[in-house]
Fold this sequence. Notes:
With about 325 residues, this protein is an alpha/beta fold. The protein folds into two domains: about 5-205 and about 300-310, Spore Coat Polysaccharide Biosynthesis Protein SpsA, Chain A, CATH 3.90.550.10; about 225-295. Helices cover about 50% and strands about 15% of the residues. The protein is built from ten helices and eight strands. It has helices at about 20-30, 50-60, 75-85, 105-115, 130-145, 165-170, 180-185, 210-225, 225-255, 265-295; strands at about 5-10, 35-40, 65-70, 90-95, 120-125, 160, 190-195, 305. It has an eight-stranded mixed sheet with strand order 7-5-6-4-1-2-3-8, with helices on both faces. α1 links the parallel β1 and β2. α5 runs parallel beside α8, α6 (about 165-170) crosses α7 (about 180-185) and α9 (about 225-255) runs antiparallel to α10.
Amino acid sequence: MTPELSVVVPVYNEEESLPELFRRVLPVLESLSRSYELILVDDGSRDRSLALSLKFREKREDRVKVVELNGNFGQHMAIIAGFSISRGKMVITMDADLQNPPEEIPRIVAAMERGHDVVGTIRKFRQDPLFRKAASKIVNAVTNRITGLRLHDYGCMLRGYDRRIVDLILQCRETTTFIPALGQKFAVNPVEITVRHSERAKGESKYGLFRLIRLNFDLMTGFSIAPLQAVTVTGMTVAVMSLLFTAFLILRRIVLGPEAEGLFTLMAINFFLMGVTMISVGIGGEYIGRVYQEVRQRPRYVVRQVYQEEEEL
């Protein structure tokens, strides 16, 4: 029987959080009084996450599936792998670290029952370090401006998707993607609701500074060519300003004669132009890198094994 609800949880080195997740998530799903499936996607964990997931599955083999990936392919590819075997009419994604409580799932289901095909979430009273909250606000604002989307919290993965949206996402074959933004692109009647946010009690965040920067570059370059257009406009502006400044220096030399006092000014301008050039090359390289990844046509992820009931295979 096709379940009404699928819950997809990417798991990467979360052995400390999983027992509490298992204890809390099933009662929530049972309270909905509807058929469901819980899909745990192990993204190449190096701890006991996979073993704990399989042990948990033994208790509810009719409701729990475990997908074992053949390495670490990233959170979003793990979710795509979960989408590919999900069967629910409504699909909810959530992290395994319990910073977004599973007790919020009924509110997402209720919003989808009101006709919304994508239910985004905004973390209320976010329990993260100040610098991460400040950086998140900046990234959200810049990304919305670049991509034309209207998401208030790109980082919260507790979200709901209609089956149609999930199928459309699965049709996209790019090797790097950002699922919340992709879902928003395809949505006809999206909505955002506030959800509780808890401080991480166990384990460590998998998103360090470099990985967050990398993810946001993927987001901006994957949904808009605005950065390239901005580079072009900046280059034209700097070229015009440089031409005007050169004309000024020529006139100054004619009127006042040669002088060396402007040497450091010229050096400062030269360093500025070098910085603009390096940024421009970097942004262009981001897009070229994405093209390179696509033309290789390597698998986005590799499933080693799916643990589910035999009749579903």
